[in-house]
Design a protein that fits this description.
Helix content: 25-40%
CATH architecture: 3-Layer(aba) Sandwich
InterPro entries: Flavoprotein-like_sf, FMN_Rdtase-like_dom, NAD(P)H-dep_reductase
CATH class: Alpha Beta
Organism: Leuconostoc gelidum subsp. gelidum
Number of strands: 5
Distance between the termini: 10 Å
CATH superfamily: Flavodoxin domain
CATH topology: Rossmann fold
Radius of gyration: 15 Å
Protein name: NAD(P)H-dependent oxidoreductase
Shape: globular
Number of domains: 1
GO molecular function: FMN binding; oxidoreductase activity
Structural class: alpha/beta
Length: about 180
Amino acid sequence: MTKYGVLVGSIRKNSYSKGVAEALVAGLPEDAEVTYINISELPLYSQDYDAQSPESYGVFRSEVAKQDAFIFVTPEHNRSISAALKNALDVGSRPWGESVWAGKPALVASQSISGISGVLAHHVLRQSLVFLDMPTMQQPELYIGNVQSLADDAGHITNSDTKAFLGDAAKKFVSFASKFE
């Protein structure tokens, strides 16, 4: 059985990114093992920590290493991904030569309250995943714009078409990820 790690790039309470992630997870098989990996408490990465990392780095890297595939959902912050998500990618990729990301398939989704739907953040994240040697599902591209009109106040996606679209994308990701087992 595939173990799916979920990284939500927004650490905000009632995050739309978490709502998108939940809608994607709903499309996974009922018996899928899903772990939401918390990135909110990781200290900012510094190469000075490579010799002796904070305990939270070890816990995070261990959790990432246990997963077979990843779902990343990011908001767009200043035309890029959130600082918290970039930090998590950096922490998992270090020390040099010890990346816990390599070879693990990824699904990328972005969301924004604007009509351009986090497209730039989406592609910034994809570029990082290429460097981290993570095969990334190419289609469908998951850009969710005007997300506030698709979700409730708690960030949960309520629009049935969007939920169906994300659920179908997750089913395709299951097939994509199985090629790397």
